[in-house]
Amino acid sequence: MKVLVVNCGSSSVKYTLFEMESEKKVAWGLVECIGLPEAYYKRQTISVDEKKDSVEITNHTEAVELIIKDLLDKETGSIVNVNEIAVVGHRIVHGGDKFSKSVLVTEKVKEGLKECFTIAPLHNPAHYAGILAVEKMLPKIPSVLVFDTAFHQTMPDYAYMYAIPYEYYKKDHIRRYGFHGTSHNYVSRRAAVMLGKPLSDLKLITAHLGNGSSITAIENGKVIDTSMGFTPLQGVVMGTRCGDIDPAILTYLLDKYPQYKSGDALNVLMNKKSGLYGISELSADMRTILKATAEDNKRAKLAFEMLCYSVKKYISAYYGILNGIDGLVFTAGIGENSAPVRKEICANLNALGIEMDVKKNGEYSSKERFVSTENSKVKIMIIPTNEELMIAKESKKVLTTSN
Predict the structure, then answer these.
(1) Would you please indicate which residues are annotated as catalytic (active-site) residues?
(2) Which of 115, 151, 153, 203: disulfide with 181, CB 3.0–4.6 Å?
């Protein structure tokens, strides 16, 4: 069985084709800058090296058409007939409170997704366009929606509610949703395998650290709390996002600075100009921040310390909520690759039974591994995330159970 995973952004379509018997990807690529002169198509297969070409693409339908034709190419393609694709899995950033699990696409499901446009205006319309494009190009192939928010739907109400008038929850569905759920789901399952115990018997904290970051508390396979909220802005310090701030800062800025009279301007400030970038005024990339820190750039050092401190606070809080943990997982770009960040986060957490083996932590590897000391009560793990494979597995499961 082959599963095609599609991830549509506002101006991009990313895809991966999996052979599910081996759970290996056989083709993958990206159409970027849709509708712009600099649009390009980058792709690769298990037998063909990466190729990148400039393309003229005006919409998502054309992008999906290009991808399907490439997959069918007689010389470099990975399938002979589109019917080799059993199901298409779509990554959906926000399912609101309408979708608590992955679902087969129907007209009713599409209408439900459209109702979530207002709470994810940057992402969900692009996802919807991708669904329509796939339906046009692959009309007989079923599609499944896999939601980043779904894994977090087990949170209790006292964890997901905000202490604002209840009417805004009832009317506008304002609550904590959480994001990166597909990643947290995947690495928690892998952590259970590494620990040799059922996920249902474990307490875990998973730290997805990238340009966007979130921390999740998981007990017996269910999410108890997560750091991101109504949007992906809440939580720890991130690449360009501010994370947690005093909400009164916004009213202060609104009153004092004319340029912030619109919600759009404030959104840009908090989502695009803050975080590592806003503090350092140098970069949102942790690699650049670390290089500058080594060169005694005090603002870069401050940005680094603020990010690590904010993650440490969430880990400590979730440790208390869970009343102890079995494992701490680092994943995503920074979590998997930045030894200094992991080291700083875990420093002085030995009172919680979290003790890092600094030597193991400093050894680079792209594989799953433990970086805790032999005596550490909590196992510290680095697990490369694989959201695409998780989406493929979820899509296969939904397809199988619906037949």
Answers:
(1) 148
(2) 151
